[in-house]
Amino acid sequence: MPELPEVETTRRGIAPVITGQIVRALRVRQPRLRWPIPENLPALLAGRPVLACARRGKYLLLHFGHGTQIVHLGMSGSLRRVSPDEPPRLHDHVDWVFDHAIYRLHDPRRFGAVLWHPVENGPIDSHPLLAKLGIEPFDERFGGAWLHAHFHGRSAAIKQVLLAGHAVVGVGNIYASESLFRARINPKQPARRLSRVRCDRLAAAIVDTLNDALDSGGSTLRDYVDSRGEPGAYFTIHAAVYERDGLPCKVCGTPIRRIVQGQRATYYCPVCQRS
Fold first, then answer.
1. 173 shares its domain with 253
2. Going by DSSP bridges, is the β-strand pair 257-261/78-82 parallel, antiparallel, or unpaired?
């Protein structure tokens, strides 16, 4: 599914275009997404300016004076700019119409979401979807000390702990495998056994891996498109282990292995990531 780099790439594409602009209409063609789109949402947004376009984990946040719209791209969704005369395709469910731009949500599996958090309900971080998310990997507080403290007592495999998103958000399946390889940590290692030094290496690897993904425009979907409707320059092309099972490790030459953890594929080098 679109993870932090894909969502951040989308945010960076739309923020300069829609910030300060008035929503002229919200066109909902299919309200039955993962959660139903509120029936009154078009009326709530019409004529209102977007004050800011932010992101929390893999959620886009469109801030208005009277609340925040939460947009999730689901398993295979995208938000792209379209021309005013472009007819909707199958699975084009929602349009945000501005004076000079239209953004269209495409979501074949309908696992995405378009929700509303009114200002009277308190800070957006208190919303149930956001309240339990871990720290952002680019937050100045994030580092080895943070991970070491949050791994304390966690007997689950480190790969699973990263995917859970409680210690740090945005480390999806590709990025977890790649970060663990860069840090030379076995994905089966219990999180609580990682020393502070190894947590330092892992934190640095997470940041470097996500920055590389951002530089290439995202990676987690082969049909992923950015906010302009153009394909991303897949980070998987440069991956060291992800989807390279059976191929030689780029460091030591040992064949990369594939295992399944929590119904998700994990890739690693049994020599470089011995422990």
1. yes
2. unpaired
User: Tens of pLDDT along 164-194?
Assistant: 999 999 899 999 999 999 999 999 999 999 9
Q: Which of 63-72, 74-83, 110-119, 244-253 has the lowest mean pLDDT?
A: 74-83
CB contact burial 42-77 (16+ within 10 A = b; e otherwise): eebbeebebeebebbbbbbbbbbeebbbbbbbbebb
| 267/173 Cα distance (integer angstroms) | 10
202: Cβ–Cβ under 8 A, 6 or more apart, which residues? 144, 147, 158, 179, 180, 183, 185, 194
Domain span at residue 228 reads 144-268
Residue 28 lies in a domain: yes
- CATH code of residue 225: 1.10.8.50
Distance CA 134, CA 148 (A): 14
| 8 vs 123: CA distance, rounded Å | 21
Residue 174 CB contacts under 8 Å (≥ 6 apart), including other chains: 3, 213, 219, 220, 235, 236, 239, 242
pTM of the prediction? Answer: 0.87
**Cα dist from 30 to 34, 38, 39, 42, 115, whole Å:** 11, 11, 11, 13, 13
Which active-site residues does the annotation give?
2-3, 58, 264
Q: Which of 125, 147, 143, 103 is nearest to 56 (CA)?
A: 125
Q: What angle do CA 131, 132, 136 make, to 5 degrees?
A: 95
